[in-house]
Amino acid sequence: DGLVDIMLQESIGLLDTTDLGAFWLLDESTNEFKLMSVHNNDETICEIRCDIDAIAVARCCSVTDLFVLQPRDYSIFMVHSGVIDAALVVAIRIEGKLTALLALVNKRGSGQFDPNMLQALGRLQIHAVSAVSKARMLEVLKTQNTRLEQTSFTDQLTGLSNRRHLIKHIDNDLVLCTRKYESAKSSGQQPQNSDMVFMIIDIDHFKMVNDTYGHNAGDTLLRQFSGLLRSVFRETDFIVRWGGEEFMVVVRFCERQDAAVLAERFRLLVEQTAFEIGNDIVLHKTCSIGFSCF
Fold it and tell me: What does residue 290 show for φ and ψ, rounded to 5 degrees?
């Protein structure tokens, strides 16, 4: 964002009569141009459109990368376009693909753009390409880092959260839970949906499955067991593979008197489930659950 703002300010500085400037970047996921930065977006001049049609823009940009708009094209980029004297657009291409747009506007009474200044603006376009390339690279790195972080917080076998995810987030929940209780106490009320229930769930005699049917069968059972956890507990709860056949569930912001009922509901579901582990083998398993409330 900082690079974009600087580039926009430099462009406006080159054309000292410019009253309004805007910069759009192509969102490749939607193929739409999104407004990233704007200078003096004043309705008395004309209002810059936030989203602009990629097809219409491509048609305008098909001939040259620096072009003075015709009045018929103003409406693509601007609202209330009847109050301006001149508008131009700099098309920024990365590896031949239209990637970003820079628009500059003179309001009525400011006149046309100086041709000499347009040449200087063309030179600025080279720097704009570099800036947009860097911005794109940073965007890709940010996305990759987000995915990497998500992977590091996920158990690869079951797709559940792992210990690292719980450790990172649990302190904030405990602080909020304590605050809810303190607030209720100070007002003389009973706290509502303010408890945390910690459950440890263990699949009974799981080692026998691995020893008898092999580790692939054990992995299949663990994945099916994880599906049962997701079906009973909420998406907002922490459902964690603690290790091996042990799981931890943190039921967030609930009523502690419901804990035993919830634990029994899951225990009974496991007992009634037929686990298909391959080769037409079906197992019936049980689990043990311990819980504590905070």
Answer: -120, 145
Amino acid of residue 245 = E
119-133, 235-249, 273-287: segment of lowest average pLDDT: 119-133
CA 158 to chain centroid, in Å, comes to: 23
Answer whether 200's CB lies under 8 Å from 265's CB.
no
- Pick from 25, 19, 177, 195: nearest CA to 111: 19
How far is it, in rounded angstroms, from Cα 32 to Cα 52?
7
Q: Note the pTM of the prediction, 2 decimals.
A: 0.57
Q: What is the pLDDT of residue 244?
A: 94
Rounded to an integer, what distance in angstroms lies between the CA atom of residue 169 and that of residue 283? 35
Q: Report the distance separating Cα 239 and Cα 230, nearest Å.
A: 8
Quickly list DSSP for 71-126: GGGHHHHEESGGGEEEEEEEEEEETTEEEEEEEEEEETTS-SPPHHHHHHHHHHHH
Q: Quick check: 154 and 165 in contact, CB under 8 A?
A: yes
Q: What digits encode the pLDDT tens for the residues 50-92? A: 778 777 777 777 656 777 777 777 777 777 666 778 888 888 8
Most confident of 51-65, 96-110, 194-208: 194-208
239 close to 229: Cβ distance less than 8 angstroms = yes
Alpha helices in 153-213 (DSSP H): 163-186, 206-213
Beta strands in the chain (DSSP E): 20-27, 32-39, 47-48, 51-52, 66-68, 78-79, 84-94, 97-107, 195-203, 238-243, 246-254, 274-278, 281-284, 287-293
Phi, psi angles (nearest 5°) of residue 234: -80, 155
